[in-house]
Amino acid sequence: MQAQTLPAKSQPTGRAASSSEAPRPEHPGFRKRKLIIPLVLLAVGGVALYAWRAHLKHEEQWLLLYGNVDIREVNLGFRVPGKLDEVLRDEGDSVKAGAVVARLDPEPYRREVEEASALAQSARSKLALVEAGYRREEVEKARASVAEAEATLANVERTLLRKKDLVAKKVSSQQELDDAVAAKGEGEARRNAAQAALALQEAGFRPEEIAQAQADVSKAEAALASATLRLSDTELKAPSDGVVMTRAYEKGAILPTGATLFTISLFDPVWVRAYVSEDRLGDIHPGMKVTVTTDSHPDQPHEGQIGYISPQAEFTPKSVETPELRTSLVYRLRVVISNPREDLRRGMPVTVRLPERP
Q: Where does a domain end: 213, 247, 262?
């Protein structure tokens, strides 16, 4: 019996064989790939999150402080009382240093200056008189008085000699002789008085009189200066550049001394009052350069430097926005802004960025 030859199975081609060898979806290698990709993404995200949180923590710990803008205000008022004559500025107006912002009625103070000026001129004239001494005519008059007194005395002395001879000859009485003696004494007294007056005229005034006249001049000139100063005080001038915040009186009001007419907010200096915790005191020092930013213009920082650090600890004020505990002790510091712009307002919260710690 002849055996049957079975037909051989056809061998798959190379393309079919390679297709049959690729792993199917339920193959273990495919499941591993699906697990690795999410793990890699999760690791990258974790690293990025850690770096971001570390950066924020670094800035919070070393780079940022929080505070408020501190702009000085000035209350302007007259040093002298009077009637308000002119008001040249209103609320919101900008003023320059030295600009006149108001005036009082100056007439009463002008009259004070005129009176003081006349008294000063009188005192100066008196001083010139005592320093120059007596006039030549007065001295000549005194000399003439001396000559007259001496001539009178000589005549009296001759009369006395004749009276003595007459009394000795029993021709004249003793009473006439006594009258002649008395006349001689009176003549001598008049001569001595005339000579003393001449000496006084020739010597001039005493040093004490000159000193008194000089003191009177100084007193009169001081009174004139005070009157002139009061007159100048009738003009109220701005002490620095700024903007008028409030205006209290109108023209015609009678103002007492020191009454506040304007309140001016100064443009310069502008400070930031910030606070630093004790563990960061070692990282700051006066003179350190910083930048200050506001919420409204975070991309336009202001340049400044630390000008003062308080030696005394205090509790963080409630007005300061800081992520730290408000009950923790801090130290107040002042940051002086260089060339401040007009976008800074009094009380505005700001962020102070310090240089990075080495």
A: 262
pTM of the model: 0.58
**201, 290: one domain:** no
- CA dist 301 and 299 (Å) reads 6
Token pair recorded at residue 16: 């079919």
Mark whether 242 and 175 lie in a shared domain: no
The CA distance from 345 to 342, in Å, is: 8
Q: E strand or H helix at 8, and its extent?
A: none
- Helix/strand/coil for 65: strand
Range of the domain at 120: 112-229
Q: How far apart are CA 290 and CA 65, in angstroms?
A: 10
- Tens of pLDDT, residues 229-277: 999 999 999 999 999 999 999 999 999 999 999 999 988 888 899 888 8
The C-alpha atoms of residue 26 and residue 48 are separated, in whole angstroms, by 34
With respect to residue 130, please indicate whether it lies within any of the assigned structural domains: yes
Which residues make Cβ contacts (< 8 Å) with residue 274, sequence separation at least 6?
Answer: 65, 66, 67, 320, 332, 333, 334, 335, 352
Q: Give the span between the Cα atoms of 319 and 326, in whole angstroms.
A: 10
Using the predicted structure, report yes or no on whether residue 55 has a pLDDT greater than 60.
no
Q: Are residues 273 and 190 in the same domain?
A: no
Q: Based on the domain organization, do 89 and 156 belong to the same domain?
A: no
